[in-house]
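Final report, closing paragraph on structural work. Over the funding period we assembled a curated collection of sequence-structure pairs, and we close with a single example.
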Amino acid sequence: MKIVLIEDDLDMQELLKDYLGNYDFEVEAFEKPLVALNYLDNCSECSLVILDLMLPQMDGFDVCKKIRDKSPIPIIISSARGNLGDKVVAYEHGADDYLAKPYEPKELVMKINAILRRVTTKVNTKRVGEFEIDEEKMEISQDGHLLSFTFIEYKIFLLLLSNQHKILSREAIASYLGSEYGDIKDRAIDMHISNIRSKIFDDPKSAKYIKSIWGIGYKFIG
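Its predicted structure, as stored:
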């Protein structure tokens, strides 16, 4: 995991590099923000930025804004300027977290890990309208509420969400489910669709999400 540290205090640089290295973080440290910005422009594997505010060449708030204008990479402010006003400005410029010096390096590690967990969660999920899909956990949420699907309902609804506005025949749905579910008949598919509709509050007479295509199958329209 590569971290970019922008810090002009060389003693602080070395302290953080050594400490983070003990947690398997690779740290690229920069004293001058313009050099760091150029590095970030060409670093596809960088995962997070630790940024001081009092820097040569450019104010740290401006550095934060320039990074955020180009990239969603997480930014933690590490600064001796710990008043509320500075924190507000930092967040307004796109910072994800703020640590006022002096602090224990362990606290920085905790914040890094917390941010990276949040970022990883977002990467592993995708959104279709009101629905958020986490295929790794095999879960689907509706407006933040976890839906209590059976596994076969999850598979069917995932197929519909992944093929938004495409008509899926009952045969195509049965084929997607595979032979492990036996010879699934049209009526069984209809029953599962009915259960899904009930759980997502979708009235088939005025469908908001799953539309019946007469004589063929279904499509997700939400």
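The chain is about 40% helix and 20% strand. The first strand starts at residue 2 and ends at 6. We thank the funder for supporting this effort.
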